[in-house]
Specification:
The complex is a heterodimer of chains A (270) and B (259).
Chain A (H helix, E strand, L loop, with lengths): L1 E4 L13 H25 L5 H11 L4 H25 L6 H39 L2 H7 L4 H39 L4 H11 L2 H27 L4 H33 L4
Helix pairs in contact in A: 1-6, 2-6, 3-4, 3-6, 4-6, 4-7, 4-8, 4-9, 6-8, 8-9
Chain B lengths: L1 E4 L3 H5 L5 E12 L2 E12 L3 E5 L6 H8 L7 E6 L2 E2 L5 H8 L2 E4 L11 H13 L7 H11 L15 H13 L5 E5 L7 H18 L2 E5 L3 H7 L2 E6 L2 E6 L1 H6 L3 H7 L2
Helix pairs in contact in B: 4-5, 6-7, 7-8
Classes of the chains: A mainly alpha (270), B alpha/beta (259).
Chain lengths: 270, 259
């Protein structure tokens, strides 16, 4: 048996700048390292196709009811609110065209992304956060599973693929809502309504708004995973991570929307 | 550093054994908090090494360094002769298949049943040429811990003791050569603790594993340890058998082992 006695460690361990600045710089470095690892590991084969499908189901299919109900009510309310003003100016017949353009270009993609930022972003963040604090992610890693590939890359891929699908679904349901809304006060033929919708819509309305949904999905997935995976301080940290995830992903969606709209205008798509 | 060696009897016993884990000058700090300062330890094949020390002293960090979950700041760590810090991701994964890790919180996957929890390491390893029927292996593993009936339950339906047993079953399902236990009896009543201690010893005898057990449980140390290492100030402060530890005059060890 042996017993050692230790001399004092004389190495300098004081802060580099100040304690708070050091801690901020450390968090920025951690975040950058995390994002680099996500891309490096996520793009490297083998790919987790089975888990991607599973996440597409969890993230996408399970959101259909919420997105559908919201989109339907949105279309309905949009028409109910717009009709009196349009009728006042003698433009009641423009109701299908106006609802189509506003739903396809802006309301459909944006509202779907905001709903998903709340539902999916917080869900991913809370799930990964609780897995982190209960050491489930460590357990996965010691089982020879790369968490960046299995947990993070799959979720980001699923949100990037499923938000566009959910948006197409939401836009369709919302247009039906708009048709129902216009039928509350007037008798509008369904063929007439949808003919006017498709006459009005052009590729330049559809393409930019569809493309931006991929960016929305990517941002929601990335923010949710980053916040959840890096959550600290136990269960309190999980709640905080979910909260930050919703706020940051909603803000990211709005910023991306603004940037894409500006780029679309520059390219002559508006 | 001043070093006082009082007795080296157990080190000479290990002369003919092959080292499973060799740790040299390990250092790990979190900001200004130095957890491991200059930690040195050799664990031999078939040995039960119990790591003890006060809470928050760095015992869990030590075994997380061994399995590559935490990257040390400096020092070398060889497992089966392979330097952990020089391995790439796939080499590390291969090495991890030879090591089991029993987490303090059991770390069962909440969203999976017990069957799926146990099958998970097998499915992931199947890519690395593990053969055999997964269902049979899961059932055998559950039989080993006496919980075959829990196969379709969710982790939330299990008691603390059952979760620990399932955690042990999952870590042993790949038949590892080294098992790292992080406080396997913490939070359990004395009877369940006793059952877990017997289970660990029984499974160690059956699979002939090398074990590193982190614990505060003196009963577990007494029953399981070939060697005990006492961690203090970031170094292996003392090392010896249980009998040597309780007979020492070192005030910290006396205080720790007086219970």
């Amino acid at each position: 048996m042996f017993i050692k006695k230790m001399a004092a460690d004389k190495s300098n361990n004081g802060p580099l700048f100040s304690k708070s600045l050091d801690s901020f710089l450390e968090s920025v470095a951690e975040l950058a390292k995390f994002n680099v690892a996500v891309f490096r590991e996520g793009l490297k084969p083998p790919y987790e196709f089975r888990e991607i499908l599973n996440q597409c189901y969890e993230i996408g299919i399970k959101s259909f009811t919420l997105v559908g109900i919201t989109a339907f009510i949105l279309g309905l309310v949009l028409v109910m609110q717009s009709r009196p003003t349009l009728v006042e100016f003698g433009a009641g017949s423009y109701l299908p065209a106006m609802s189509a353009v506003s739903i396809v270009r802006e309301i459909g993609p944006l509202v779907t992304a905001l709903i998903c930022a709340g539902k999916i972003g917080s869900g991913i963040s809370a799930e990964l956060g609780s897995m982190k604090v209960t050491e489930q992610i460590d357990a996965m890693e010691v089982s020879g599973t790369n968490p960046f590939k299995y947990l993070i890359a799959t979720r980001i891929t699923a949100t990037t693929l499923m938000i566009p699908v959910l948006t197409v679904y939401a836009v369709t349901i919302s247009l039906f809502g708009a048709y129902m809304g216009s039928n509350i006060t007037d008798q509008v033929n369904i063929n007439f309504f949808f003919n006017r919708v498709f006459e009005t819509l052009a590729f330049k309305d559809i393409i930019p708004s569809f493309i931006k949904t991929f960016f929305f999905g990517f941002a929601i997935g990335l923010v949710g995973c980053t916040e959840g995976y890096n959550s600290k301080k136990g269960t309190e940290g999980v709640g905080k991570a979910a909260n930050i995830s919703v706020v940051v992903s909603m803000l990211s969606v709005i910023v991306i929307d603004m940037v894409v709209t500006r780029i679309s205008a520059m390219l002559g798509y508006l | 550093m001043e070093e006082e060696k009082k007795n080296i009897s157990n080190e000479t016993d290990s002369a003919n054994l092959k080292p499973a884990i060799e740790i040299e000058h390990l250092r790990k700090a979190f900001g200004s908090n130095i957890v491991l300062r200059d930690f040195n330890l050799t664990i031999y094949t078939g040995q039960n090494m119990v790591v003890m020390g006060k809470s928050g002293i760095g015992k869990t960090i030590l075994i997380k360094c061994i399995i590559g979950l935490v990257k040390p700041d400096s020092g070398t760590m060889r497992v089966f002769g392979k330097d952990i810090s020089r391995l790439n991701h796939s080499e590390l994964d291969e090495l991890r298949m030879r090591i089991g890790f029993v987490f303090q919180s059991s770390a069962l996957y909440d969203s999976m049943t017990i069957r799926e929890n146990l099958a998970f390491p097998l499915r992931r390893s199947r890519r690395k040429k593990i053969t055999g029927n997964i269902e049979d292996m899961v059932r055998e593993s559950l039989r080993n811990v006496g919980l075959e009936n829990a196969i379709d339950l969710m982790p939330s339906e299990l008691s603390g003791g059952m979760r620990k047993r399932i955690g042990i079953a999952r870590s042993l399902i790949l038949k590892p050569e080294i098992v790292l236990y992080d406080e396997p009896t913490t939070g359990l009543d004395p009877i369940t603790s006793e059952e877990i201690i017997h289970l660990i010893l029984e499974l160690q005898k059956k699979y002939k594993t090398t074990s590193v057990i982190i614990t505060h449980d003196i009963d577990l140390a007494r029953e399981a340890a070939n060697q005990i290492v006492f961690l203090k100030d970031g170094i292996a402060w003392a090392q010896g058998t249980y009998e040597e530890m309780i007979k020492t005059n070192d005030p910290d060890l006396k205080k720790f082992f007086k219970q």
